[in-house]
Batch of 2 targets.
Target 1
Amino acid sequence: MSKTEITVQTDRFESTRELLESVKRVLIGLLSNKKGLAGLTLVGTMVFISFAAPLIAPYDPEALGIGPRLEPPTGEHLMGTDDLGRDVFSMFLYGGRISLTVGIAAGIVATVVATLIGVPAGYYRGRTGRWLTTAIDMSLVFPPFVLVIVFAAYIGSTVFNIIVILALLSWPIPARTIKAKAISVRENEFVESTRALGATDFTIMKDEVLPNVLPVVFANGVLQVVFTILMEAAVSFLGLGDPTRISWGTMLYFAQTEGALSLGAWWWMIFPGLGIVVTAFGFTLLGTALDEVLNPRLQRRTWGWD
Amino acid sequence: MSETETLLEIKDLEKHFSQSTGWVGSLLGKDKAVRAVDGVSLSLDRGEIVSIVGESGCGKTTLGKSLLRLIEPTAGSIEFHGTDITELPDDEMRDLRKEMQIVFQDPFQSLNPKKTVRQLVRQPLEIHGMSRTEAEARVVDALEDVGLSPVSDFLDRYPEEMSGGQLQRVSFARSLVLEPSFVVADEPTSMLDTSIRARVLDLMEELRNERDLSFLVITHDLSVARYLSDRVGVMYLGRLVEIGDADEMIMDPKHPYSKALIESIPSPTPYEEFDPADIEGEVPDPIDVPSGCRFHPRCPVATEECKRIEPEWRMVPTEGDASRYVECHEVDPKHVPADPQPQ
């Protein structure tokens, strides 16, 4: 009788408990890793100030003539003003929202697509694996940047469209990495032993392959966000971003077209540029740290160095 | 063993791994096949333990895996409970896996390190559609059956927190929780310390006695084979060369290869002179199998005939063993009964 008590007790929340456990473990790992701590701090700060923009921003980012035109940074306008007298600091805070939303959303979608295609591409040996691999390799051939420009020009550059386009064009590289990892996992004997129990391919991929591929998925996903943030900035800088929303990329676009450089209005370009660089750097640190935390072999090596 | 029921009947099972030499090679007809299993026939009764022994590379593991279709056999038939499973569609085969299981050599490899014992043993039941709560009760029973007690101490451990012997028991529990009637045990004790080995062997014996379970034990350890099994088969280069009653086989091997294999066991008595077998050379490449009898290049008694003609698989009853089969020209054929029973 006591047996059944033990089993029923822990049964109900098993998966949730385990998930929380591993999230906790990873967080602790990140916090005790120098790169992880730095990355979390940078990304956390950028995310916080962007999403708390309405609370922090001293002015309406779109209101014209808030201050004098092209004023260098002062106590009143921390990052100066642009040629229409808008407050650059307020625009910077609000602009981060679009850059981060587009970057993170597109990065996540791309990583999910990459996983859904990469895992079966690596797991299946026969024709299915070959077809999926061919699909990945062919998608890899398309120059993403050129296609983003073409698509943005054709289907219109709303925020949603930009997310979809960036996601659809950036999945092949992580898909290849995930596929390579899936190949090494499928060779494990526990995969064969699960097949011997009568499991379907789907169950094996879900229960045996995916959990062992996830570390690679996460580390890649974070680095994927860096790529999509930079892409978004590039697209907006070319004037193909959503014209109704301020992002760091569109700020740079206007600074460029209105001749900030020749006017000597360095603050107009430096701050949005810094926003992009700091965010991308933060995510890169986070991704590298995540790789180290989730991959015990790398971890041991860093311990040796420190 | 007067009333026996044949559980498994393998006929001319073959597994050839093709080694592609590229399309140029295939145009030149140079594609070659590794003949890992090259025509093995064997039958297994309910409740019987048969061991297959042989050097590494003789195809014994491939035989074990291909008769469960973990490796698809190239040719031959496998009848299980009277149905040929080589032609079964995938979904029926998956259902049938409840009945035929395998225990792998290294439990550290064959158990997912990210799962607890509870999850590992529950998984087979969930795969076959049992609800989690229902499965949990069976998990506890299965772990008790393999002697992991108190069970509550082990349920939430991860593989890395257990010893090899305990883990091998978990492997057994994972296979046996489905209540199969046939289990392939691939070197079940070779990764274990000698002290634990006997306990795992006893466990297998017990399972056979209690559940009428049949085992095909793949091993290179002749003492394990003798201790555990009813019959022992010797494999050489993809073929069975001899099979017979376990004790008789060890005491009185007929095939020159079996003799050599058995003589190579060092004697525990220091007074006896140890004279290892007089066979020379290495096992030939299974890509280039020798003509005639495949053992002839290393055989001490080979004749011209052996180089040309492949010997037949025939019954050679010995004094103590009426069920001995041998594949050799040189084994005295006088004892062949007038009406040999085809196997």
Target 2
Amino acid sequence: MELIDSASRAQVAMDEALGSEKMIINMGPQHPSTHGVLRVVLELDGEEVVNVWPDIGYLHRGDEKIAENMTYTQFIPYTDRLDYLAPLANNVTYAYAVEKLLGMDVPPRCKYIRVICAELARISSHLLGLGSFAMDIGAMTVFLYLFREREKIYDMAECISGARFTTSYTRIGGLARDLTPEFLPMLRKFLKEFPATVDETDKLLTRNRIFCDRTRGIGVLTKADAIDLGVTGPCLRGSGVDWDIRKSHPYSSYEDFDFEVPVGTVGDSYDRYLCRMEEMRQSVRILHQAVDNLPDGPVNSPDAKILLPDKEAVLTKMEELIHHFINVTEGINAPPGEIYFSAENPKGELGFYIVSKGGGTPHRLKIRAPSFVNLQALPVMAKGHMMSDMVTILASIDFVMGECDR
Amino acid sequence: MIPFLLINLVKIACVIGVMLTVVAYTVLAERKVCAWMQDRIGPNRVGPMGLLQPLADGLKFVFKEDVLSHHVNKVYFTLAPMIALVPALITIAVVPWGSQLMIPGLAEPVKGVIADLNVGILFVFAISSLGVYGIVLAGWSSNSKYPFLGSIRSSAQMISYEVCLGLSVVPVFMQVGSLNLSQVVEYQAHHVWLGLCQPLSFFIFVVSAFAETNRLPFDLPEAEQELVGGYHTEYSSMKFAMFFMGEYAAMFVASALMVTLFFGGWSLPFAPFNVPAQTLGVGLAHIGIFLVKVCGFLFFYIWVRWTIPRFRYDQLMALGWKLFIPLTLLNILISGVVLTLMSK
């Protein structure tokens, strides 16, 4: 005991004599590894991270407030810009949230197409997440291999919605339009080629000694911590919690699909990486089933009070003209009430809490963004690790500031 | 005296000229090769197939504003890039590029090396370890946190790997019986390439050379994703270009050393390339052989960089001190025993 005391006394004396102090360093908001505009203030003891203070808000645009000043349909383009790496999935989740408020259902074909959208978005988001993860550790080629595949997903998004990035593909009660004839062959071709890229990445990273050394045991988030902090998505599953909203509260006919939810054991960066890899494979499985069993029929709900009626009918019939006019000027007349709807987005649970007092605009719209919640686990994960591990941990959380700051 | 000076000046001019050209084109090769590895095209706008790109890059650096922030220590800040570049250029002086050149009109053949020192390799290590001062000074004089972290990393890294580098080549000289690099090459020309009989030595030398030249997987001082460029974050214009050239020149020297020590230098294992050249043509061919081998290793550098991830600082140190140094010591012991037994 005395020995320890004297050793620590010596350390303190040396620190005082040398005038040694901890270094405060700013990581971001302009930094190649903070993926957007996250600012992290680090307190370093040499290379060791003693304290972490994430500082968010550099991309705050007031999306929630904006929502109060427009109709439900007009807010769809804003959802593109939440998690801007998976706009299709955001569109889908938002549409279901408003539909829940309206107490309506959509045709089965629409549900299947929405599943296709959500899973494509999941693959696209994970590709970027894993690519930048690899790049931050120094394996830059993996990043470009994965981007090559993302390009194909962008092409498909363009094919169905006309836009590559800001898709705005869903409508309340349906979709902007049915699938184009070229889309299914494109998707089939992609599903055939894509697993090869996943396997290639697997070969480059999963058993790469340097990669394992850099990620195993780094940024461990225990099961209890993950639940306490409200972490969701691959970060939660990496910590060993079997929780996927697609399974626990199936929406969009996910109950029809046969897929597995990968779960990690340790909760380190490596587990989160493995979860994302496996989720991409499972998404391919879901997409195969969706393509093979895609039902025929309409994609839009027939309720003209919600969706714009057929243009020809608007020009020839009185009733439709009125619906069109009301829909465009006043929006969908939602009943008063409060609802919360959440879906399993690529980064975790994206939820919309809508308070309606009736009429065409929400009284309050709260977005539960997975990146925002997941990011609060950063100090827990990062303390005690080295400066180099910060980038590994940040990349393994896979956050998007557009969604975090809203 | 005058002819001696003249010949040496011409040699120096040739070596520096060739070396800087190779350095410039290695940058282009790096961009091209990584582009091909990543399904891209690479630079192809300047000149045919982008071959004039190095010229454009150089011009760009010259015309960039040379930012000198008010918080830097101006003397050391200016000195650092020079210190980083010059040692790499000096060390090449003792590396034999060819055997000898029989120039018509000269009584004696011209040696293929600028300075035929009998302590060649010691000279290389002595000078190349000066390179670390460039990086340390750059980080320190920048008076900025990220460069500071980068330079701390790099000084620790380079000092530790210098030990590995030095120890790893000891068996080579035990076998050859000389520190003179020309004699090492001649030994290999007569007997066998040392990379074949000293594989462990070769392996550790290659890995340590990667660390010594700050290349991925050991590019921690720069570590773009962590330190945003490391020690040269605050540099711009030609000062930055000098660091850049220094890195590639160091790569060139490291490749040249690998070729000289382990892959037979200018020689090939068959006549007339396994003896010092007796005609001008063969002499020039020897230089060509040497350069081709060096380019092979430069390609290897690029290939590795774009394939594998980066080590972490402590892992790198552990690898050096806990694995490589014991291994090199063991290697020296084994080589000693084997050489003693064989000589009896």
